[in-house]
Amino acid sequence: MGYKLTPAGFGALLDELATNYQIFGPVRYAGKGRLAGTDLTTYGPVRSVSDLVWDARTTFAPKEVFFPVKESLLYFSGQEITEPSLEMKETLVFLRACDLNAVSRLDKIFLANGPEPDSYYARRRQHIHFVLMECQEGFPGCFCVSMGTNMATGHQAALRLENDHYLLQALAEPWIALGERYGQPARVEPVWVEKNPLTVRVPERVDIALFQHELWREYACRCIACGRCTLSCPTCSCFSVQDVIYRDNPERGERRRVWASCQIDGFTDMAGGHQVRADRGDRIRFKVLHKIYDFRRRFGINMCVGCGRCEEVCPEYISFARCVNTLNQLMEVQGRDA
Amino acid sequence: MPNPYLPVPAKILAIQPQTPVDYTFKLATDIEPAWGQFVEISLPGYGEAPISISDAGAGYIELTIRRVGQVTTALHRLNPGDTVYLRGPYGTGFPLAEFAGHQLVIAAGGTGVAPVKGLINYYANHPGELEGLHLLLGFKTPADILFRADIERWQTIFPTILTVDQGPGGWPGRVGLVTEFVREIPLKPHARIIVVGPPLMIEFTVAEFIKHQVNPEQIWVSLERRMHCGLGKCGHCKINDFYVCLEGPVFNYSQARNLVD
Amino acid sequence: MSYNTKELIKNAYRITSQRGFTALRIRVPGGHLEASYLGLIQDIARRYGNGTVHLTTRQGFEIPGIPLDKVPEVNRLLAPLLEKEAALGVPIENFQAGYPAAGTRNVTACIGSRVCPFANFDTIALAQKIESLIYPNHYHVKIAITGCPNDCIKAHLQDIGIIGQVEPEYDPGRCIACQACVKNCRQFIVGALEMDNYQVQRDGKRCLGCGECILQCPMAAWTRGPRYYRIVALGRTGKKSPRLAATFLEWIDEKAVLQVIANLYRYIDRHIDRSLPKEHVGYIVDRTGYQVFKEELLEGVDLGPKGRVARELPFYGYSYDRNLYMEG
Ligand SMILES: Cc1cc2nc3c(=O)[nH]c(=O)nc-3n(C[C@H](O)[C@H](O)[C@H](O)COP(=O)(O)OP(=O)(O)OC[C@H]3O[C@@H](n4cnc5c(N)ncnc54)[C@H](O)[C@@H]3O)c2cc1C
Ligand code: SF4
Ligand code: SF4
Ligand code: SF4
Ligand code: SF4
Ligand code: SF4
Ligand code: FES
Question: Which Gene3D superfamilies match (chain B) (predicted)?
Answer without folding.
Answer: Nucleotide-binding domain of ferredoxin-NADP reductase (FNR) module (3.40.50.80), Translation factors (2.40.30.10)
